[in-house]
Fold these 3 entries.
Entry 1:
Amino acid sequence: MLVAGLFAAGCGSSSQPSGNQDGTQAPATQTPQQQTPEPEEEKRLVIYTGRDQSIIDLVVAKFEEKYPEYKGNVEVLQMGAQEIMERVRAEKANPQGDIWWGGTQQALSLAVKEGLLAKIEPEFASKIPEGYKDPEGHWYGEMLLPEVIMYNKNMISEAELPRDWDDLIDPKWKDQIIIRAVPQSGTMRTIYSAMIYRFYKEDGKPDRGYEWLLKLDANTKEYAANPTDMYLKITREEGSLSLWNLQDVLIQAEKEGMPFGYIIPESGVPIL
């Protein structure tokens, strides 16, 4: 589930009241000084997100249209979900961001336990079903996001396509897979966790899951530093397959014209 939360700090300024603080009256002969009004603090919003740039551009434009006082003052820092988690941890004593937009339920739930997120009740809170938001209002789910197999349609025919996760470890796909670097990516951590868990469910231990990941690694040509790098490499036919979330695959195909298709694995998909 893709979720969003508010960091545990508020932005704003405080001012001391003007005039004599002890309540005494100034002498009649004293010329009162003209008070210079303090300038209003500029509205500013800092967002940490793992969302695709085209989604960021669309949402920020709509936000600034509705709240013109923020126009030109929305700063978006794009990074992987795990990178956001680590940054928010590091900034706990002095938060630099306002909103965490786009991450896994697991990551934001952990952030709540660590006291990194503030409570908030947005106007849409009552429209989010229980189970898709934090019970105390620290984060709210945005969507359920299936993880799929992505491929370059110019490189693989329909007849050749892998049909399930286990097909990816077939030696015929050696050096054909390009994966987003796992440590920084909430999407890839979710997929890897699901691959381990399906064996743990059967065996009561993760060993076969780790072995499966080693076989996937043997077929993996490269771990891309970020999603954009991954998209470009597959478009340039440096690799033909990846594992990624359905929404971003569709965005790249329909909005950016990239030659991407997707496969819903027959055994099921993890949901972010």
Entry 2:
Amino acid sequence: MNTMSERDCASDESWCNRFCLLLLGVELVIFLRVWEFLLGGWGNNGELLLSLATFLLSVSWLVMLLYINIANKVLFFFFRILISGIVNLVGFYAIFHFLGVAGAVIWVLGALLVNRSRLKIFFAYPNYIGYVVGGYVFSFMVNWLIGLLGTDPYSWWIAVGILPFLPSFVLLIWLWNLLTQEIHQGRSFFDAMRILELMPMTFGYFLIGVLTIVPIKLFSGESLFGEEGHDYLAMPQE
């Protein structure tokens, strides 16, 4: 008879596979729609079928993502820091408007200094850092190549029909592998998804979040992220 941990692992793997397969389906139908547009000749029935498949798969994936973000409390975390984030952003733009680039740089450096202890939590998750940073770098390189090839009349179809989908498919395979490894090491699917989603979200906040130093519940780092050293990325304990 399977142990509880084995059943949990199987359940997490099932969630992981369904999530990634749905995302793969969405990417494939969008890829086919682009090539249908480039080549033409599929007829009204083909266009209608692709449109219907795109709608159904996209809605199904978005509903699943919404459920995941409710279950792992990512949505709750987002709304908790939303007002503070907006106020910090307004302050950043005000400083930039009146003091220019120098003022903006000082604001960002101050925010990173104030939140340095919270940023250290990231280093407990090197695989996730690699995925997030690698994803941004890879996407930037592909977009640069698209811009380069898009001006060439002999290779523009590669820039339009193939390269835009390369990051999506590569990052999906990378994501699938990362989530599977984490599950096999004992982390739940929901916990892994929470870390992946909160890492870029909180990093963006820490770039401008000077007001976490203010001892007011709406802004203070302790009320938003917990006491110093608290792992706010991990799933909260019930």
Entry 3:
Amino acid sequence: MFLSLRKKKLLKELERIKKELLEKYHPLRIILFGSLSTGRVRENSDIDLVIVKDTNKTFIDRAIEVALLTRPNLAIDFIVYTPEEFKHMESQNNYFFKEITKGKVIYAE
């Protein structure tokens, strides 16, 4: 029961965040990964998002910008890559990129 409630809260917050991002941040792609994307939600599960956006801001400034813009009500990890960075990760085929590709694309331009 508790985990079902936790999953509902996470999904509701995900929809709110996605709407905010699409209206105000204009990403090229949003990928949900981690426990929520696989349905294996635990009591300490959060929302893990990779966002791809054309920007000149630094890696840290991007995450701060998204957090300030969306003002999450639950724990969320925002990781924002430029298209070039994302392509580079793909070409390296590293472990983290493999984890991301196990996720779900919830928006793509």
